């Protein structure tokens, strides 16, 4: 099941010619996201914390991925 989800995510990302990946959606990650949004730059957010996930889903222009911490 995880492989199918990853394949779907990769397929979706391939549709876009350029985007920024933000790893972590804490104070600095949110600031970067707001600046990218201000300049209409597409971005993806990856974070492991659920509290950050809910904030990131509202702002991410492509998708927000919640990855489990290792």
Structural overview:
The chain is an alpha/beta fold. It is built from 3 helices and 3 strands. It has helices at 2-14, 27-38, 50-59, and strands spanning 20-23, 43-47, 64-66. It has a 3-stranded parallel beta sheet, covered by helices on one side. The longest helix is centred in the N-terminal third of the chain and has 13 residues, at 2-14. The protein is flat. The mean pLDDT is 76.
Topology readout:
Elements: H1 2-14, E1 20-23, H2 27-38, E2 43-47, H3 50-59, E3 64-66
Parallel strand pairs: 1-2, 2-3
Provide key terms for this protein.
3 helices; 70 residues; single chain; three-stranded parallel sheet; flat; alpha/beta
Strand line-up of the largest beta sheet: 1-2-3
Average pLDDT metric: 76
Q: How would you describe the shape?
A: flat
Summed up, the helix count is 3
Structural class, by secondary structure, is: alpha/beta
Could you give a short description of this structure?
With 70 residues, the chain is an alpha/beta fold. The protein has helices at 2-14, 27-38, 50-59, and strands spanning 20-23, 43-47, 64-66.
